[in-house]
Specification:
This protein is α+β, with helices and mostly antiparallel strands. The protein has helices at 3-54, 61-74, 100-109, 142-177, 179-189, 208-255, 262-291, 304-318, 344-360, 416-426, and strands spanning 80-83, 89-92, 111-115, 119-128, 131-140, 300-303, 324-329, 339-342, 367-374, 377-383, 430-436, 440-447. Strands 2-1-5-4-3 form a five-stranded antiparallel sheet. Helix 1 runs antiparallel to helix 2 (61-74). The radius of gyration is 51 Å and the shape is rod-shaped.
Length: 448
Amino acid sequence: MKIQTRQSLYSSLAFGVIFIIISFFIYVLYQKNTQRAVNKNLEKTAYLVAFFHLEEDELNANEFESVRKQFDAIVAGDSYQVYNQNDEIVWGNKNETISLSTLNAIREKRSLSFSSENEFCHGLYYEDNQGDFVIVAKEPKALLNEQLVALLWILLSALIVGLIAVVLLSRWLARIAYKPFSSVIDQVKNIPPHNPTNQIDVPNTKDELQELTETFNHLLEQIADTFIIQKNFVNYVSHEFKTPLASMLGNLEVFSLKDRSPEEYEKLSLKLISQIHQLEEILNTLIIISNLRKETELSNQFRIDELIWEIIEKLSLSYANNKINVQLDILPEDEDILMVEKDRTQLLMAMFNIIENGVKYSGGKSIDIRLYREHTRLNIAVADKGIGIPAGELKNISKPFYRADNASPMHGSGIGLSIALRILEKNNIKYRIESGVNTGTTIIICFE
């Protein structure tokens, strides 16, 4: 069932329930108020009967004539009874009598409203110089019942008409209200599965739909990033594995063409071992990426400056022509700030990748490493003067296998920096990256 249909159904049910409850109260209140009005009219009729039959001797001619006219206009002969002290009917309808207990109750209370099977009645105890009388005025229930039946039909008709109106109106309003939903659904259906980069137009509805659409667009961005990462991963693995495997296969094929000397076998073995180590290094890198998603608790205390000097020593073997400047802006009395308690192996890998990236993309220019204190925390700034990172691509550099467009001429896989940043995040080490095209990149690492 569509939301529009369900909303229309719920609206109709809610209207029906509310209308029935209101109709019930209207019916009950109308019945009670009408019966109260009937009782008041019957009381007035009883007094009019008393004046007509018992006060003629005490009224002048004009007053009695007025009473007589009202009596003739309002009172019918079968709509009242006048009982004397002996419980005998002296005037009015003599076909139906009131029970003795009811007459005594009227005398006791002096005024009493009651009803019989077919009539509403009001009894009045009236004392006169001619004696004490009980006057009972009556009105048939049929008239009130007819009015109540008419009211029921009116309420039922209003319920039916109202339900039809609510159904039609709610469907019309739902169609208008859910038009943005239909638009979003159509756009989602038209997103190609092989290219989920298309963004959905965000409706300016200031409600949950806008929030849902923005969330969905964010999800599409993540899926698109995953596609890119997956594509880069396949390219990386196929490229990195293809070269050593092709070399190994070629060497083995050539080597198998004729008999070889022990020296040649040893040379081939060493070469194959080297290539196998290369494949192993690639696999270890992939394992590292996978393991960084797991939570581990392995930390020890060490001096961060010693770790940096160890990295510089290792890099000097591969980048002998690049100069790395280290500036230690820590006072002797603040040397304790250089002691950090983290996973040394992971931090070594992170710092190595960050510094190596600076050396690799600096274009032969020197890079600067500065250790300094900011408030109560240690900061390390690694700055190069290389190609830099375009502003629009800074947000993507933490993604595995992602490389900026201007980095494509240089050899690399796009995983070194992503691993480094992931290690920093895992070890609760904050960082920020400042970069500009052809002006260089600065990565500031903040230890709490």
